[in-house]
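Run log, item B.
One chain of 123 residues. Sequence copied directly from the ordering sheet:
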Amino acid sequence: MRIVLDTNILVSAAISSRGNAAKILELVADGALHLSISEPILSELAEVLARPKIGFSAEKIRVAIEAIGEISELVYPEITVDAIKTHESDNRILVCAVEAKADKLLTGDLKDIRPLGSFHGFA
């Protein structure tokens, strides 16, 4: 199954190795799931991890990004999507999922992404 993870899931996995988000990445590392990711998602992840509330060092961010990159397929989006008007940066998640032909997009975003339901064939 090909998946795309929203940044909030990736942040959760980076913060705690015990939660469901980390378990998802373990499934990816074991080959049970196929993770697709894009540079814009990785950039947002780095930005969020550097915020004072989380406070990852530059080295810890580099390690986290590198680890995710090693188990993921990097997608180079060639399309644009304008489905989310309230938080336009969330469209980058949708673009990655469309370009990767994802089966599932996993997100904790109850406000902007989940209300879309199914989008371009993925749920």
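Observations after the first pass:
- The longest helix spans residues 58-71.
- The radius of gyration is 14 Å.
Flagged for discussion on Thursday.
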